[in-house]
TrEMBL record:
GO terms for biological process: proteasome-mediated ubiquitin-dependent protein catabolic process; protein ubiquitination. One of its GO terms (cellular component) is cytoplasm. This is RING-type E3 ubiquitin transferase. PANTHER family: E3 UBIQUITIN-PROTEIN LIGASE SIAH2, E3 UBIQUITIN-PROTEIN LIGASE SINA-RELATED. The keyword Cell membrane does not apply. The gene is SIAH1.
Length: 260
């Protein structure tokens, strides 16, 4: 088992190669994450074969792989079909801080203390929170660490740069739970915009809903890049009735995280 696992070691990232397995024209293997980053084989500099190595994929299904958290103390080994589920729930799993320019990684039990110590101005507590987007001339990214419902969440809000008319600015909101995909599926979040007319007493609301993602579904290399699925995407045109003008243009809203 150990000798075969060494044959399934990616020459670029040095992690074990799991299906789908790719190879160059000379048969050197590479993992599915690194193959999209490399123009040539890192072993022989030849081109990659567009066909997968189905034989090695069958071999990998017969082997027991160590948990990716082995370096942090996990001793478990499991078949590839069980590997992802185990690593989602692994007690030795490490989380990377999602704030820009922070390279900290640590156990789940250490996440809260790290946020309080290093990002306290961006820590909010409670399942219902008030946020405000200020529209200036630049794009912006707002990040908050949310402690609610006995869990920890990463809140990401992004506003695009002002486009050329008649296009509108894009607002994207995503919430990720520090935990497994199974646990993330037990929560959803709402974004609520409210407009109240003082004279008439008229109230208008706009509510959007989306499910939360597991924090592990943010690839480390995409941590500070574009969002994936399970997000709320809006345009400045949609929320224009809820904007306020007080020397600057802004839109307040309520974000709620609730159990499903």
């Amino acid at each position: 088992n150990g000798q075969l696992l060494r044959l399934l070691e990616c020459p670029t990232c040095f992690e074990h190669i799991v299906p789908p397995v790719y190879q160059c024209l000379n048969g050197h293997l590479i993992c599915n994450k690194c193959v999209v980053k490399c123009e040539n084989c890192p072993t022989c500099r030849n081109y990659f074969n567009p066909e997968r190595n189905l034989y090695m994929e069958k071999v990998s299904n017969l082997l027991k792989f160590p948990c990716k958290n082995t370096a942090y103390g996990c001793k478990q080994q499991m078949f590839i079909s069980l590997k992802e589920d185990h690593e989602q729930e692994c007690l030795y799993r490490h989380y990377q801080c999602f704030f820009i320019n922070c390279s900290w990684k640590g156990f789940h039990s250490e996440v809260h203390s790290h946020m309080i110590k290093n990002h306290n101005n961006n820590v909010v507590i409670g399942s219902e929170q008030f946020f405000e987007i200020i529209f200036d001339s630049d794009s912006q990214t707002l990040k908050s660490f949310l402690s609610a419902e006995g869990e920890y969440f990463a809140v990401n809000i992004r506003v695009s740069e002002p486009p050329t008319p008649p296009l509108f600015r894009q607002i994207k909101i995503q919430v990720n739970l520090f935990g497994s995909k199974v646990k993330a599926n037990k929560f959803k979040f709402f974004v609520e915009f409210t407009q109240r007319k003082k004279r008439s007493g008229f109230s208008q609301k706009l509510i959007y809903e989306s499910s939360t993602l597991s924090y592990s579904e943010i690839d480390e290399e995409e941590m500070h890049s574009d969002f994936k699925r399970n997000r709320i995407s809006l345009t400045s045109e949609l929320i224009e009735p809820f904007m306020r003008r007080r020397g600057y243009l802004s839109v307040p809203f309520i974000l709620k995280v609730v159990p499903v």
